[in-house]
């Protein structure tokens, strides 16, 4: 079988695998929303490309869009978490087939280059190139903009896969993308004039024919590096050659939680899951690291000094951890859901433990954002209002997903993990939880003033926080009515 036939066969197999996934039916809404999001992104990129091209044509800096490519690539890198998986996740089922191991991995890498998301970025480069062409640029320059733009996007897809592979082995590798994308903005922190000189240099460099050569070499080099890494790490994992984790020297009992009875036992389980299970631990570390980065940016820079932006990021810092973990609530428990169903109200105690744990986590962003209060970015009333809103309205909304989630999430998901796609209900509830408080703030500020708005938000959050025993029990009752359907989904997705 030649490479082309293998490529077509595996693309067909991947499409069939997605359709046969037990979660396919519940993911239809998620896919529709993803297509709508892609459409909105395309429209935004067309608008952005058009607006950038006009001043670039007037200033005769035709390749300005390429000079700003570090910004586009950083946005592209962040958005790939929602649309792209490492190709090695799909390799394992084919190892027992009469197919060359290297050819299978190469085929999946090529598939990542052919993915439709990569070509969405043409919506930025095509209108830009057309307008600068009409504004006096040569045809060769317009063609260079399009080709180099798409080559950089494809190279970025390979860099993303490299980072995802490395961070699966050590969380410290997240420093790599921070250095790569953050280096572009470093001159601003040193001297703003240096940023202007950097833009001028990049405009000159990107307008030359050897910039195209640079992009082609960059894509080839990252593809070969990614290919080598996938060969090594996938085989290493499958053959069990990866280094063993150090033996546990001490087992923490968390005896101080025993006074809380069964709820305390589930609090112990929550803590032990974080420290012992790689997938859960990575999610917690990433969430807390992002909160730290955001609070530092807000406290010590003027990037987010707009009133609505400060409201958004203040709430987001409090809600980020819950949005990251609770959107998959009951997913990790799907691995042992049968045991949880053996005793009455086990699930209720588990939900209470999760709620108390996530409320306690809110203390972390509260402490981290105190420098922003000292700097005058936030008021203490604003922070308390969003803390209560997170423990009340946000968690009330996200905990509803415990009724609908029925897809098991591996506790130690590595390179060859399963595909975990959010269903439509998850996405709708998460979007509502993220934006409804900001809509409330905007409405209340229009009707009253900021102080009154924060008092109302804090009161709503406090009422829902104090009423948590009632709505947690209601969630438990609804979940138990669906327990057989949910258990079937957990079993099928293990």
Quick overview of this protein structure:
The protein has helices spanning 3-20, 28-58, 64-67, 69-83, 101-114, 116-120, 122-134, 139-167, 175-182, 186-190, 192-206, 209-238, 261-276, 278-300, 307-325, 337-340, 346-361, 363-368, 370-374, 380-398, 401-404, 424-447, 450-466, 468-481, 483-492. The chain has 494 residues and is mostly helical.
Number of strands: 0
Q: Which parts are unreliable, with pLDDT below 50 for 5 consecutive residues or more? A: 241-249, 415-422
Number of helices: 25
The run of helices and strands is HHHHHHHHHHHHHHHHHHHHHHHHH
Based on the structure, what is the oligomeric state of the protein chains? Answer: single chain
Shape: globular
Determine the structural class based on helices, strands and strand pairing: mainly alpha
Strand content: under 5%
Helical proportion, percent range: over 70%
What would you report as the Rg, rounded to the nearest angstrom? 25 Å
How far apart lie the N and C ends? 33 Å
- Overall average pLDDT: 79
Largest sheet: none
